[in-house]
Specification:
The chain is α/β, with parallel strands linked by helices and about 350 residues long. About 45% of the residues lie in helices and about 15% in strands. It contains 15 helices and 10 strands. The structure holds iron/sulfur cluster.
């Protein structure tokens, strides 16, 4: 792809609310001055969200790491007989989800493709039970890849599977499993899980059923800049069709303990530029997250100046996926510290729920 873009022409399109082209995206990544890209993303973020920076009070559970999909970037999955395999029983999930203090707003659950747990038969009664015991908590459950796995095992359509999960109490799907939505990349890093078309179709059907979803991009491994841009365009096109994505979360690749460790850690400049380019390319998605569990709180503060308007949140946290991949961030940072970090960065800390309804401060 040859970039025929100029920064001024891109800025004009951004201010007019027009979608940027693939060439614009590549130019912003590869050629445009770093600070100018950040400034333009900040302008758009401010026009969209004012001086708000959102956080959420949530609990995070990885309920099983048993998985045979063998994604090359994954440091989390284990085979059943490995000592590090960990599968929670329904009782443990309920106990952890309902343990005091349970005055949180979102329960976020992600796991492996576990033949014994990742099924509609396990989760539909589990969701009903969660909904009954903690009705004030919104349930953000599963990635599109997990939904694809469950529906294939059940031999049902995405529509049927998602409708049953929604009727049991599922509020939203998580954005993971997207990695890079380009076949060449998936063939290398995750050939055994949902394809590009399948991942997008799960979200399309979810949106049609009134289930909102988030979306992600795992960057910093085998992909090219052009493929990152292709990924962003695929998300933007689905959003133009359905309007069902609430938030985009760029996820930096972490190299410890997996088969892609040769690619190393992403740099801070790449992280910030990726937030900014995402903000500018995804003009039709309202929220961009600087996921502090991935970057650390200091980078997340900077991300708020490069186009992000959300830093996630997470107290009472058991997020294991990034920890297995080498993350050393303190994952139990109290909410007051997150609010202080947002305010120090110059923004109004704003507690939200899963659907971005503003809540009273914690
Ligand atoms: S990324 Fe998910 S699907 Fe892939 S191996 Fe890890 S747990 Fe399994």
């Amino acid at each position: 792809m040859v970039a025929h873009s100029s920064f001024d022409a891109i800025a004009e399109k951004v201010r007019a609310g027009e979608p940027l082209s693939r060439a614009d995206g590549v130019f912003l990544y590869a050629d445009a001055p770093f600070h100018a890209v950040g400034k333009l993303a900040h302008e758009l973020r401010t026009a969209r969200n004012g001086d708000r920076a959102y956080y959420v009070v949530k609990r995070y559970l990885n309920t099983t790491n048993v998985c045979y999909a063998a994604c090359k970037f994954c440091s989390f999955a284990a085979h059943e007989k490995e000592p590090r395999a960990a599968r929670m029983s329904l009782e443990t999930i309920l106990e952890k989800a309902c343990a005091p203090p349970d005055d949180y707003d979102e329960l976020h659950i992600v796991g492996g493709h576990d033949p014994k747990q990742t099924s509609l038969a396990f989760w539909i009664p589990a969701i009903r039970e969660l909904h009954a015991r903690i009705p004030h908590v919104q349930l953000a459950l599963f990635t599109a890849a997990e939904i694809d796995y469950m529906c294939k095992r059940e031999r049902c359509s995405y529509e049927d599977g998602l409708r049953r999960l929604r009727d049991a109490g599922l509020t939203s799907l998580n954005g993971g499993g997207a990695e890079i939505l380009v076949k060449r990349v998936r063939d290398i890093i995750c050939p055994h899980k949902a394809s590009v078309e399948e991942w997008l179709e799960v979200h399309r059907v979810a949106h049609r059923l009134g289930i909102m979803t988030n979306c992600t991009m795992l960057y910093g491994h085998v992909e090219t800049i052009e493929e990152r841009v292709e990924h962003l365009v695929a998300l933007r096109e689905l959003q133009a069709e359905t309007g069902g994505f609430k938030c985009f979360v760029p996820l930096a690749f972490h190299p410890d303990g997996n088969d892609l460790s040769e690619y190393g850690w992403t740099g801070g400049i790449d992280d910030l530029r990726t937030i900014a380019v995402s903000r500018l390319m995804l003009h039709n998605i309202d929220h961009i997250k600087a996921y502090w569990i991935s970057y650390g709180i200091k980078m997340a503060q900077l991300g708020l100046h490069f186009g992000a308007d959300d830093i996630d949140g997470t107290v009472h946290n058991e997020q294991q996926i990034y920890r297995d991949a080498g993350s050393t961030t303190d994952q139990s940072t109290p909410i007051l510290e997150l609010r202080r970090a947002i305010e120090e960065a110059g923004f109004a800390s704003t507690r939200r729920n899963l659907l971005y309804r503003v809540l009273e401060p914690a």
